[in-house]
Amino acid sequence: MAMKKERSTTRPGSSRKGKYAGLFRNPRIRTRSSAERVREAGPDRSPGTLGSPRRRLPGPIQFVLKLAGSWRLSQDELAGLLGFGPGDTAHAAALLTGKAELRGRDVRDRIAHLFRIRETLYSLFRDLEVENEWLREPHELLAGKSPMSLMVGGSMEDLLLVGEYVDEVAG
Predict the structure, then answer these.
(1) Distance from C-alpha of 65 to C-alpha of 46, rounded to nearest angstrom
(2) pLDDT, tens digit, for every residue of 64-109?
(3) Nearest Cα to 119, choosing from 158, 37, 63?
(4) List of residues 6+ apart from 69 with CB closer than 8 A
């Protein structure tokens, strides 16, 4: 009795074995890996960007930028949230564009508190418009001031006070 010759299901150059080997790869089409694309783009360029330097902003800075958009903050208000005074607006802008590094524990702590405040407000309101109104209206328990005015004042104590107040309101 003649034995049937078993057909190989792998294509040359394919490491996949089994019933579906070779179905997912066309040997005539050469695809480049992401490492090859980055190498071809050069050390300071990322693929797909025409001449722009590749910059990845740290996660805390990305959060602050998103927060600034959500809360509709001006550059001065954003600088105040991060603890910078009116004269440090340029440094705050450089920090937010990735031209300066995020250094110091104070700024990192402020961003962490802002994250917690934003997270609690989101769970409380779920509506950005209502959240923005609540942040900007005066509250009796904050001596008639708005949470936003306290936070952008630049004092870490006021930021902590707003955090405690938000926690208290959320229950």
Answers:
(1) 22
(2) 889 888 999 988 888 888 888 877 778 888 888 878 887 778 889 9
(3) 63
(4) none
Cβ atoms of 162 and 110 within 8 Å: the answer is: no
Cβ distance 10 to 17 under 8 Å? yes
Q: Which of 125, 128, 145, 127 is nearest to 136 (CA)?
A: 145
Quote the radius of gyration of the chain (alpha carbons, Å).
27
What is the per-residue pLDDT across 112-133, written as a single tens digit (0 to 9) for each?
999 999 999 999 998 899 999 9
Q: 3-state DSSP call for residue 102?
A: coil
User: At which residue do the structure tokens 């209502």 appear?
Assistant: 130
Question: pTM for this one?
Answer: 0.64
Domain edges within the chain? 59-170
Contacts of residue 81, defined as CB under 8 A and 6 or more positions apart, other chains included, come to 64, 73, 110, 114, 151, 152, 159
> How far is it, in rounded angstroms, from Cα 34 to Cα 80?
40
Cα torsion angle, 149, 151, 155, 160, sign: positive
- 142's tokens: 């904050």
